[in-house]
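Table S2 (continued). Query chain:
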Amino acid sequence: MDVVCQFEEVARLPLPGDNCAVAIRQLNSGTVIQYESQSFVLDYTVMEGHRFAVKAIAPGEELLSWQLPFGVALKLIHPGHYVINETVLEALNVRKLAFVLPSDPNFADQVHPYILDEENFRPAPASPAYTETRTFMGYRRQEDRGVGTRNYIVLLGTTSHTGSYVKKLAARLQGECANYSNIDGIVPAAHTEGGTTMPNNVDLLLRTLAGFMINPNVGAVLLVDYGNESVTNKMVEAYARERGYPIDEVLHKFVSLAGSFEEELVKGEALVREWLPTVNAMQRTPESIRHLRIGLQCGGSDAFSGVSANPLLGWVSEELVRYGGAASLAETDELIGAEPYVLSKVRNVETARKFLELVNRFKERTSWHGTSAEGNPSGGNMYRGLYNIYLKSIGAAMKKDPATRIDFATEYGELMKAGGYYFMDSPGNDLESIAGQVAAGCNMIFFTTGNGSITNFPYVPTIKVVTTTRRFQLLSNDMDVNAGQYLEGKPMDEMGQEVFELAIRIASGQRSVGEKAGHAQVQIWRNWQQNDANQLETLLHAPAPTGAPIEIQDDAIPMASPILFTFTRQRDRQSSDNIGLIVPTSLCAGQVAGMITQRLNGRGAGQPGLSGFVALAHTEGCGTSGGPAESLFARTMIGYITHPMVEHCLLLEHGCEKTHNDYMRHQMEVNGVDASRLGYASIQLDGGIAKVSEKVEAWFADRLAAAEPAEKVTVGLEGLRIGIVSDGAIIDDAGEQLAALTKMIVGAGGVVVVPENSGLLAAASFRQHLFTASQVRPSIAYGEHVRRNGFHIMETPTTHWVETVTGLAATGVEIVIALIGNRPMQTHPFVPMLQITAEQAMLQKHQQDVDLVLSGNPASWANQMLERSKQVLEHTYAPRLYQQGNIDFQLTRGFLGISL
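Corresponding output:
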């Protein structure tokens, strides 16, 4: 018997003129819906958040939600028919669903482009301002900086090169605030930018760093560089002073690291300790809420974001602006298709024009990279009912109340200098967008989420607003507000007032749920590599490397006494180490993965079978373009999943990303990788940080209990898989001996991989002693697992050291030899890196960081490197910088990756 449901019990119509309704729970095929004076039957099972027609929609007619178009019917769509497009069908077919989907789409993603009618434009009046004021307890700064809702000491890595330094320094100082009640914490702000040759986002990066410094929540800030990067402290200071940033009004210091890693950590600790009494002397005082500047974000959005949570933020923003405060709407590509609504009320035509210029610039920049700004929705968005960018944008735009006008349209990170409602240019990538709002001066973030995004910023409190009661109950330990109450009948005015009061309490010092969880991440709008479309066709159709080893000279000099290595063998895997690996499938799962491995390692779990647990936190998997960049990501992740040093591996998804667990399973199946031996967990679907942590730890415990003991085996050079990198000039003797080392290993049947960007490949002393051909090309792609032993060159789309090492380690090498000429560099999370040098001058500053100084007869250097490698591979010696914590991990986006 068919189930009969009243429409109001099972669906919502955002506005009366819509012809498509949103299911508020899963509705099975055959369900009879009583709607107004008619009834109709659902032709397919409609997922929660997905849409079905409530009126007949003719071919070519627009589908409407919020009375705005989000597509055009391809065929006659009857009332009760599941409306679905081709992209969502493809995304859902990757997942394991228990019901049948339509075989073909019935609508296409198509809307008419918006054209600003300047001739008939009429400026909108501002909403009436309140005559009275309200206060919160905040930290008053100098007038141009505003008032802080928090009081932090911020350790800021000027580029990615010093990211591991500020993270390690913050970790060493965590106990220092216990006796300073007015200091909220000492936090690192590490990011991925500025670590390569002069980036295209340099102006944006400098503006962001200057804004980070003077954010009102900063009590003191330490900026750290090496002084020779493409972006330096001197550049940040010059940028800030030339543009009137009041950096002298915040306690700060620019530091360039010159000595060893440990020595510089000791100096950094001493400096921060000197600041503590001064920062603690800053106290909260009653301040007008006109000083509140809130950033509005939505992430892990669903079909209800635009129905409940985003309108709630629109209510709060309108209220704050009427008190003289400021609110910032962002995520440029997530407003494409919503222009008629966004520009329905604007302060002046210049602001409307600037908004459209920023949107068009965003579209053009993405087109240079072979993608479309309209490709923003993630797999999680589509799964929860946001079929395309138009639906996502219409819902996202609801963070602006219908009564609110747009006052300003600004660049990413541009300072907010007055009250009002702002639009700030940014990608839809949540963390990249939030960083721009923090740089602009936001002292609070309001973040709506349908799937249950857990992200927070280190020194600006985030209030998380979830769209449905069911999701709030699942993630109650990670969310602040249940906007799902609106779907159940609670008036928006009542909810808005409650959230406004909560905002004032949190601004006054009450900790948000995210702050209590200790979860926070930073990501600045990442560099893009193309400045036009001139190279696009060449890059899109570049031939893939063959994977075949490169022929080299076979005149290796036999060793007088061969070196043997003790490895372990387990199942069909032979390696120098056994680790438990957690691979986050996106940026937002990274810190949670790190928290879990830290807890596992802290109690010695896995021993003696495993040497430890490792998490590969990174910045990708969500809010980035697909195509080549997504393929590169998947290939590199599979390289780590299949790495010979990995005994047990679990994929940890956030839950709303493009590259979720099901996506990764599919990629492994396509590439012939057994996905069944892996573990899988989801922060959102498994109930939040605490519950997913328990699940992951239980999975590893089960695997360890069932594991068979490893067998010790002895191998020669044929068992070695070595990567070689270089930084700085190549001394002839060093190049010649690295060539000799390569020939010895490859000649014995082992693997040597050198990245394409290594100076070794251009050094005559290396080339002449190694290659048989005058021209050599990469044999494997970035992050590609080596399947055929021999000598390989790996493609490297950037000159970034950490991105290079990240790709190199994914090839399956078990040790990296780094020839350093400038300074020691960050090491890898689990593939050991030997920092070696032939330059005595290196020891004057970095003696504590160098693992091997090549000395004596150069003919012995290859043996010296092998002997030190043996100590590392057999765990009798640990590389120094790894022990000290100078560790980093960063995936490249390739030539065509760009933030969406």
